What we know:
By secondary structure, the chain is mainly alpha-helical. The protein has a single domain, classed as Up-down Bundle (Growth Hormone, Chain: A), CATH 1.20.1250. It has 17 helices and no strands. The protein has helices at residues 6-13, 16-48, 52-80, 82-99, 106-132, 139-146, 148-177, 179-199, 217-222, 224-252, 258-286, 288-304, 311-326, 328-340, 345-374, 378-396, 401-417. Helix 2 (16-48) runs parallel beside helix 4 (82-99), helix 4 (82-99) crosses helix 7 and helix 10 (224-252) runs antiparallel to helix 16 (378-396). It starts with 5 loop residues before the first helix and ends with a helix. 55% of the residues are buried.
Amino acid sequence: MLKFDAAFRSEFRDNRVPLALATICMIFAFSAPSFSLPFLFPEVIKEFGWTREQATLLASAKYATGAVAAIVIGRFIDSIGPMVALAIASAVGGVAMVGFLWVSSLTGYYVLGMMLGVAGPGTIIAVKVLVSQRFHRTQGTAMGVALLGASVGSMLVPVIIAALIAGFGWRGGFALLSLGVWLIALPALVLAAFVLRKSNASAPAAPAVADLPPGTLKAVMKRPVFWIFALAVFLGGMVDQAFIQHQVLIFNDLSLSREVVALGISAMGVIGFFARVLVGTLFDRTSTRGAAAMYVLLGFGSLLAIILGHPLVFALFIVARAVAHSGMLLETTVITKHVFGTERLGTLLGIYTAFVTMGFATGPWLMGRLFDMSGSYTPAFLIFFGLAIVAAFLMSLIEPTYWRALKAADAARPATAS
């Protein structure tokens, strides 16, 4: 059974405040816009008469912007650290949610999507770096704990936004949802910065391991593994976010009520809550093999979606989607470090987050386009199954050099001490 071992407890003891801050930001700054957008699309389609492709293109605008922003943000974090980046990204996301009060055209609608595209990657990259700088041997487990915030958000946000839309309309509902940013996330950042400065708590140095291949960014980008990993996370992001952004529309086609849809999506959050740390620990222990298995599960969910009308299949779909999605933000964080080590980690995480974000941008648009062309989601489900399997194959080709060196160093330590 996977559990918190001595290594995690040792690293956690000195890094409780940063890990708590990361979790809070994932709940209130990252989850609010991420898990509420699917409830926006039916509302704007009904009010403005937009097509599904036009409505869900907001997600593509968000992630296309995020792909560019991620690279800039990653280099920015390497220069000044993750805390300021977290504050800026959280504030931009809060402003964007308030901005829905005044949306009246596709142009303004997509501009807000672009603002969310700065906020989302900014938050997640800063959290990735904050955790990765402080947890080395148990990075996956620690990131899984931080991403429990996203799981909590995925449980609460669908129910909250459904109630807010019912009570205040979609404009007021999204504006009210931003209060978590203004009243909780930003004050927590200020408090954490004060506590860390007062205690003089700095990030621990990375453990010394065997030499890695040449480490300049230019040299890293010349290695085939750089691009194999980039394509794998791009395809995985396509599949995952296509289902995230279309899931309300998919469930609505089954004639389910808004409340049942919200409960179904919240159930994914409950399952994901328990899966996050387990998947993170699995990545700590199996590295790229565990990530490849997660992509296979992503493909299995795509197949289940074809026959979603049966109650048992619906339940299996919820479980498969929840577990697979619980690893989607983890695999980029953990595998980047497992392959390339700790040098220029913010920049590399920014680059790979950009590739994932491009996948996030492409997936919802492609699924919407395929639906509008055929009048059915079935062709899209089959195509996305194939994409997930290709991603799994590519991930299986990757050699986690730093992870193996770290494992070897740990194995040699008792013998050396003896």
